[in-house]
Amino acid sequence: MKTIINTTNAPAPIGPYSQAVKANGFLFVSGQIALSPATGDLVLDDVKTEATQVMENLKAILTEAGADFSSVIKTGIFLKDMNDFAAVNEVYGSYFTDNFPARETVQVAALPKNVNVEISVVALVG
């Protein structure tokens, strides 16, 4: 059995998917980009600001599902340019402070809405 998770505190999906799906004790959170849930606008001032908005979107979805960053067991980071890795990693590290999840970071040819970073997570939920 699965439960669909959606919150107005994160951007609405821009396609046929859910913000997250809870199933069998796991929470699968769709990749988030730097869309402001308040305005629907992209937050692309610089890559650190962009990554912060992505992490805040993830935080809102985790919270809606009754989880937080300490519940995350796996992350996927997708970058348009691997040269942004250090800046994104600095922001990411401010949200994960110990018991770090498994992670991959890959450079991709393009991301939705031509953003620079997209992050997805898998978390444990009760």
Q: Give the amount of beta strand, in percent.
A: 25-35%
Anisotropy-based shape: globular
Backbone CA Rg: 14 Å
- What number is the mean pLDDT? 97
Count the helices. How many?
A: 2
Query: Could you describe the largest sheet, including whether it forms a barrel?
Result: 6 strands, mixed
Q: Kindly report the oligomeric state of this protein.
A: single chain
Secondary-structure element order, N to C: EEEHEHEE
Name the helicity range: 10-25%
Strand order of the largest sheet: 1-2-3-6-4-5
Q: Which structural category fits the helices and strands? A: alpha+beta
Query: In angstroms, what separates the terminal alpha carbons?
Result: 14 Å
How many strand elements? 6
